[in-house]
Amino acid sequence: MKRRESLVASLQDLRNSIDELLGLNATGQLLRLNRNAREKAYEVYIFSLIARSVESLGGSVEIHGMISGPNPPELVFRGGPGQMWSTSDDFCYLVCRLRQKRFEVHVSVTYEGQSAANHEIDVSIIEQAHADKSRRGALFPRTNKNLVGAIECKFYESNPGVVLGRTFVGLLSDCTSNRFQALAANRTSTGLESFLSKVNSPLNFTDLTPLDKKAEERFIGTLAQALKQWSNSR
Amino acid sequence: MNRAEWEAAFQYLLGRLRESEGMSEVAAEIERVSERMVVVPAQEVPSEWRLSKRDRSEMGDFSVRPRTPEERFMLALQLLEARAVEHPAVVRRLQKRLDVQGKTIRFAPDDTSEVESGEDFVGELTAGLPEVSDMREVRQAFQRLRDLADEEKGEPRGVSPGP
C-alpha cells in the first residue's frame, strides 16, 4: 500500500514538474522557435569551434564579410546552400593563418565534386588560394585537395537514424581524401554509431553539444591535430 | 512507475502542451516521433511482434517494436531538452566562441543559389530567444523534471548542464 502511495506521489511530482516547466513564458518562446533556426545555429556553432581549434594552435582567426571585409559590423550567414562568390549579402567566413598555411572556413557553400555533381557542405575548410580563385572566377570550389575539411552538421531533437551517415559517406566518395571529414551531431544512436564505426567512415562527433564540455574538447583537439599535421606539410 | 503511470505522465505532458498557446505543434511532433518503432535485438521482442521471415532476412539479428510508455515519455523529454535547453546553449556558446556577443547574427538567402534545401532559414539568430535569466530558469525547471524522470527509471540524477 505504501509503495502504491509513493508511486501516486511520483506521478503527481512529475505532473507538478511538467506544470512548472510549461508554466514559464520563456519555455513557450523556446519551444515555438523555428526548427531550421536550430539547424543553422548548430552549423555556426561548429564554425565557432573551428575558430577555437585554430587559436589553440597559436594560429590567427579573423572574421571577414564578403562585402565589408575584415571585422564586419554584423555576422551574416547563408540561410541555405549558396555560392562561394556570392555578394547578394555580406556573407561572412573565417580567414585563418597557421604557420605558412592560409585557409578559410565557410558555412553552407556548394562545391563541385569529382564527378562534377554539386554538393552543399555544411561547414568547410578550404585553402585560401582556391577560395580566391573561386570568388574571382565565380567558379564552384572543388572537392579536391584544396578542401582541407568537410563537416556535416545535424541538430537532432530525438535519436538519429543512419540516413544522415549514409548521405554524408556518399558525398565523401565524391571528394578526394581530405584531411578532416567529420559528422557532427548533438545526439547519437546505436545504429549511427555502428554505421560510423566502419572503415572509410568520417570521424564521428555525434555527441557534440555545449552541454558536454568533453565532447567539445575532443572535437577541438582532433581537428587541431589534423590542422597541425597539415600545416607542417609542404 | 508502471506502464499505466508512465502513459498517464506522457498523456499529461501532451495535454498540457496542446492547451498551451502555440504549442500544439510541439505535442504533434512528440506524438509523431514517439510512434516510430524502436530497433532492438531480435531476442528481446515478444512473440506478437515477431517479423515475417522475409523481413527477418533484411533485419538480421535485429527487430522492431513499439516504444513503451516510459520510452515515449523520455523521448518527449529529449525533444523538450533540444529546443528549450540545448539550442539556447548553442547560441550562447557560438557568440562567446566568436567573441561577438554585441553583434547581430542573421541568416539571409543567397540569391545566387538555385537550390533550396528545405532547411533554409532567414532571420536573426537571437530573435525570439528569451532573456538569459529566463533561459536559466527554464534550464533549471527542465533539470528538475529530468531528475524526477530519471529517478523513476532508477537511473542516477543527471549532471546539471552548468551556467
List keywords for this structure.
heterodimer; A: 234 residues; alpha+beta; 7 helices; 41% helix; B: 163 residues; mainly alpha; two-stranded antiparallel ribbon; two-stranded antiparallel sheet; 5 helices; 4 strands; 53% helix; disordered C terminus
List strands and helices in order, with pairings.
The complex is a heterodimer of chains A (234) and B (163).
Chain A: H1 2-22, H2 25-31, H3 35-56, E1 60-65, E2 69-70, E3 75-78, E4 92-98, E5 101-112, E6 118-127, H4 128-137, E7 147-154, H5 163-172, E8 180-185, H6 190-196, E9 203-205, H7 213-232
Helix pairs in contact in A: 3-7
Chain B: H1 3-19, H2 24-34, E1 38-41, H3 53-59, E2 62-65, H4 69-98, E3 105-108, E4 123-124, H5 132-153
Antiparallel strand pairs in B: 1-2, 3-4
Helix pairs in contact in B: 1-2, 1-4, 2-4, 4-5
What does this protein look like?
The complex is a heterodimer of chains A (234) and B (163). Chain A has 234 residues and is α+β, with helices and mostly antiparallel strands. Helix content of chain A is 41%, strand content 25%. Chain A contains seven helices and nine strands. An eight-stranded mixed sheet of chain A has the order 2-1-4-5-6-7-8-9, sandwiched between helices. The longest helix of chain A has 22 residues, at 35-56. Chain A is globular and about 70 Å long. Chain B has 163 residues and is mainly alpha-helical. Chain B has helices at 3-19, 24-34, 53-59, 69-98, 132-153; strands at residues 38-41, 62-65, 105-108, 123-124. In chain B, strands 1-2 form a two-stranded antiparallel ribbon. In chain B, strands 3-4 form a two-stranded antiparallel sheet. In chain B, helix 1 crosses helix 4 (69-98), helix 2 (24-34) crosses helix 4 (69-98) and helix 4 packs antiparallel against helix 5. Chain B starts with a helix and ends in a 10-residue tail after the last helix.
